[in-house]
Specification:
With 418 residues, the chain is α/β, with parallel strands linked by helices. It has helices spanning 2-13, 17-24, 58-63, 65-74, 87-97, 111-121, 135-144, 157-164, 168-175, 185-193, 215-226, 242-249, 268-277, 306-312, 331-335, 350-358, 368-380, 382-398, 402-415; strands at residues 50-54, 79-84, 101-105, 123-129, 148-153, 179-182, 199-201, 232-238, 257-262, 282-284, 297-299, 315-318, 340-342, 362-364. The chain has a 7-stranded parallel β-sheet with strand order 3-2-1-4-5-6-7, sandwiched between helices.
Length: 418
């Protein structure tokens, strides 16, 4: 009955979906394309058996990289079907995997749409990344006998409270999942409190994401453009409102170069307008030109270069954590030995943030002003910066291995039972 009511509500909302897509297309025109896929109609056909991975957007798509590599090596006769929900996630998939995978949008959670999706692709098994709980999709997989797992699963306290409002709808979805691979014991406990029964702890796949093999060369080239005369502070994956706070704390006396990389590409122009309004001399990364001496801020308006930005930086402030957005991934910075500064809001990365702080790889601050002050201190104290850099590399290395644990658990639990 709860799922029937849920489906009824979805059908009542159906007329508004095109309006929502049109609204989002104002800043991302890509939302105007491939609408048919969002309702379960596909032109793609394949003769290969499929392993289906759902990665909702950019972060999950990047996190899936080592898993996709390992699955392709382990199941060479299968093809990877990668689904997402956002154009930026699809663009990231194209950039990372190209023709190695088949990419489509996952349909909205209408019963007919998910049936058409499963009929078209007939996956051998499916893997949902992180916290993608779609009741009709999960129920359809169970009905059709498609083995389905929630992997790299995380659930913050805030999200757990939100899901708890849906009661038996969510508990039934979790019970219908034959396997859940949680990132941490805390994630596993929260999932079990909501009704999950088949939970294993396999670690965080993001620790296994390796930098590109030519990252040193790319980072060196970027650093040459930025200049070696000034230290470089990276504000990575910033969210709306955070840039203004950081720029307000970026004093006229600051002798370092600030590189700001907004989390969402549709906000590049908004941040450029902010810099212009504040009369701060800036350049865009997309100009690919040497940074002038008078330039104080570089706007990182490029896609797929996060590792390169980290490789060229001396210290990083991780966005999404200065305002209550839940934080962004700090593992990539640690993997390249970049000291990390995070704000008070890291509920999406609770365990990672706590472990990084305990390892001496990260510092937590209360606001943007404190973040700038700590960054200035580290940029001036090379000994302290070096200590944090070494701690960051050791922290990242110590937590690798989640891909192998996840695949072994899938084979021993999910596939063995099917």
């Amino acid at each position: 009955m709860p799922r029937l009511l849920y489906s009824l509500i979805l059908y009542l909302l159906l007329p508004f979906i095109p309006l929502r897509l049109l609204w989002r297309a104002r800043k991302q025109p890509e939302y105007l394309s491939r609408w048919s896929e969002r309702f379960g109609f596909y032109c793609t056909a394949t003769t290969h058996p499929m392993i289906w991975i759902h990665a909702v957007s950019v972060g999950e798509t990047r996190a899936a990289t080592p898993l996709i590599d390992a699955l392709q090596a382990r199941y060479p006769t299968h093809r990877i079907l990668l689904t997402c929900m956002t154009p930026t996630g699809r663009a990231a998939g194209n950039q990372l995997y190209g023709a190695r995978v088949t990419q489509v949008y996952l349909p909205y959670d209408y019963p007919g749409a998910v049936r058409r999706f499963l009929t078209c692709f007939q996956p051998s098994f499916g893997l949902l990344m992180e916290t993608e709980l779609w009741p009709n999709l999960i129920a359809a997989c169970k009905t059709r006998g498609v083995p389905l797992a929630l992997i790299n699963a995380r659930l913050s306290e805030k999200s757990a409270r939100g899901y708890a409002h849906f009661g038996s709808l969510i508990s039934a979805a979790l019970e219908n999942l034959p396997l859940i691979c949680a990132q941490s014991a805390a994630d596993a406990e929260r999932l079990q409190q909501l009704g999950a029964t088949n939970v294993s702890i396999t670690g965080n796949l993001k620790f296994d994401v390796a930098p590109p093999t030519d990252i040193a060369e790319q980072a060196k080239h970027l650093r040459e453009l930025l200049g070696n005369e000034r230290r470089v502070l990276l504000a990575a994956s910033t969210r709306e409102g955070e840039e203004a706070l950081l720029l307000d704390a970026f004093s006229a006396q600051s002798n370092f170069l600030l590189v700001i990389v907004p989390r969402h590409p549709q906000r590049f122009d908004d941040v450029a307008a902010l810099l212009a309004a504040l009369n701060i001399p800036y350049q865009r990364r997309s100009e690919n030109a040497p940074i002038r001496a008078e330039t104080r801020v570089v706007l990182g308006d490029s896609m797929g270069e996060m590792f390169t930005y980290y490789g060229a930086a001396d210290v990083a402030i991780i966005g999404g954590s200065l305002l209550p957005y839940g934080g962004q991934n700090l593992i990539e910075a640690c993997a390249l030995g970049v000291p990390v500064i995070i704000g008070p809001h890291t509920y999406n990365f609770t365990q990672v943030a706590q472990d990084a702080i305990a390892a001496g790889a990260a510092l937590r601050v209360v606001d943007a002003s404190a973040a700038m002050a700590q960054a200035q201190r580290l940029l001036e104290d090379t000994k302290a910066e070096k200590q944090m850099s070494n701690a960051a590399r050791e922290f990242a290395a110590a937590h690798r291995g989640a891909v192998e644990k996840t695949i072994v658990t899938i084979e021993e639990t999910l596939l063995a039972a099917s």
